[in-house]
Every structure is written in C-alpha cells, then in structure tokens.
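debug: dumping io for the single-chain case to check the tokenizer round-trip. Nothing else runs in this session.
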Amino acid sequence: MAKLGITETCFRDAHQSLWATRMKTDDMMAVAEAIDEIGFHSLECWGGATFDSCLRFLNEDPWVRLRRLKAVIRKTPLQMLLRGQNILGYRHYPDDVVEAFCQRAVDNGIDIIRIFDALNDVRNMETAIRAAKGAGAHVQGTVVYTISPVHDTDAYVKLAQSLKELGCDSVCIKDMAGLLKPFVAEELIKRLKAEVGLPIQLHAHYTSGLASMTYLKAIEAGVDVVDTAISALALGTSQPPTETLVAALQDTPYDTGLDLTKLAAVNHHFKEVKKNYAGLQAPTEVDTAVLSYQIPGGMISNLRNQLAGQKAMDRYEDVLAEVPRVRAELGYPPLVTPTSQMVGTQAVLNVLTGKRYSVIPKEIRDYVKGMYGRPPAPIDPEIQRLIIGDEEPITHRPADDLEPVLDKARKEIIEYYQQEEDVLSYVLFPEVALEFFKRRAGLKQQ
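debug: decoded output
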C-alpha cells in the first residue's frame, strides 16, 4: 500500500464551484509558496472556467497567472482541466488550436493535463491527448461518471482501456455531480486497477454528501490520488475538505504524510480572503435532490437563475423533473459542461413554453446533428425528427469538418498582439479577449 496522493483544488475547481471562479491571482500568490511546501501530489490551478473568468471578470491575463504561479511553485506539479476538443470553451475548435494550446500550456508551466469529453467520446480527446503528450505533459484521460441505463462499470472500464491505448499516463474518474456511491466506487476502482493497470485518480463533488464516504472506500480499493479542497473552500458543490481526509488517514497504511499545521496556516489565509468573496459564495449544504435528478450543483444554480430571470421560480420542481426526461430523450449525455447547460436550457424552455421542444436552441440542434460527438445511447427517433427533421446526423469526428484558424486569427489581432498566447485567447473567447486587449492597451477604462 502506497501513501495516498492529494490534489488540492483551491486554485481552480473549489473557487469555480463556490465563488463563481472569481478568485484573484494576488489572493493565490499570497499563499502559493506555503502551498508548495505542503507536499501535494499536484495543485489544480488552471483550466475549466478560470481562463474565461480571468479575461471576462478580473481583467487578468490567464497566461500571466500561470507564469506567476509557476515562478514560485517549484516542487508541486501544476495541473489543469481541458475539455478535449472544446479546450476551455463550449464548442469544438480545430486541431491546430488544440495542438498549439497544449504546447503553450506546458511552455507556461502546466505539468499535468486532465482531458475529458462531455460525452465520453474518445474521438474528441485524441488530438488533445496526442498534443499534450508531445508537449511533455503527464496526460490524464478522464472517465466522466454518471448514472443511466447505458452507463455501468463495464462501460467505464472499456473507456479507460481506450484511454490507455491512446497513450494516457493515468485515468481520472470525474464525478461532477457527486453521484458515485461508496461501494460502486470500490468495485470500479478494483476493476480499473486490475484490468487497465494505470494510476487512478478520483475527483468528486460533495453536493450529495457522499464524497467523503466514497473517497474512503476508493482508498481501500487502491485509488492512487484523490482531489480535495482546503476546508474554507470545501463542501457543497466543491470537493471534500483536505484536512479532514488527512486527519482520517493519519497512522494508517494510507497516511498522506501531509502536515495539518501547515494546512491550517493555508486555510487561515482563505478564511480571511473569503470575506472579499462573500457576495459570490454558493451554499455549502448538502443537496440530496441530485440523487434523484442527477443534476450537478452548478447546473442547479443555472436553472434557478434562468427561472428567477423569467420570474418563474414556482416552476422549479417541474424543471427538475423535466431534466431527466430531456436527458433520456437525448441519449443520456453526462450532465457536465457543456451538455449540462444545453439539457438544462431545453428543460426550462419545455416547461415555460408549455409545449415540449417548441423552442429549440442552436446548441441542441447541433448536438442532435452529431456536432458534439456520439451520444452514449441513440437519441429518441421522434425527438430527433422534431429537432432536425429528416437530416442525417454526422457519424465522423466533428472536428474533421473544421479548418485551421490560427493564421487568420493572428492577422485579425495584429494591432493588439503582444505574445503568441494572445492568439489562443482570442480564438477561444473572441469578444471577451478583444475587450481585454483594448483595456490592456489603455484604449478602454479598466
């Protein structure tokens, strides 16, 4: 039995889950060296929604954030979350963008790239896996965990085997909704260890209240690393608390070797900093509705906001019940970015209009056309006809239809260009990046 590795999520998923991804880089830098001394397996600090939020809300360059962190964090590997062919956006980007992005991420300081696809379609991860490996990163292929009639342990083991064949160095089980139950985790991890043979990492959210129990069974089953958040940024839709798990494993064969005194000092910093983000703080109580509806916490917040905006909070329960219906009709996509937003919006429209699928967003049409990849199960034929008529969905890899764009983008931003990374920021988030470039050049007010 090897000691358990801990990936700390306070710089990425924890504040994405609880503070709308608004933590400023200065608040990270103030404690970065202390975190580096703790001995974490890795520090998740980039990717997910952090890139967009830096540019859109914080007037910060996400590339500069990464370089600043790397300058002081020298012992602990830096980790990021990449949405496969979606990179950090909500649609597919051409291969030239994926390849350049992975290279630049590594050049700027990323050591471990966790790559996932919302549909678990490995075709949408292939280019990112190849590019990340070519850039010299540790590549972690991801199994997005969900519950449905077509998702079971056999399917997940098969998916993990495909990720191994593509060259992944380790496998992550990504339980974004907190649905993975302790004894299911035990069986899944035992089989992955025996049949796939790669290091296994478990990432779970505390939403349902299951995650700490699930982690314990996973640890007994041989999981190599788990994701936790320092306690000031834990619980609710974030991860289980770091200190609690460290304490629970002390003087056992799984002892993490981490120092609770050092962790307490880091936590004290975040308890103080937390006051600055009070207006953004998401609830941290357990929400067992996720066990009935399989809706992740972030998605529940979006649904509430959509209904509040329409002054229709009285229809909340109706929408919660509609989400699983829509999901089943669309072939049981896992509810993770971007499919969670798509299914949620369609459910809201179905309820508020009173006529199901009378209003259909472009993203749902594209999804049904196969432009996001292969759904886990066939889409209900009647619903497919309603949405795209007699049109035949594509069956090839969606990114095969995309032309290279980097050269064109470089010319478009030539007057604002300061670094090659600017081209990637612009391709991913054109309007947001342009606004940021103008502010950076002093052409717009800060």
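debug: round-trip ok. The chain is about 45% helix and 10% strand.
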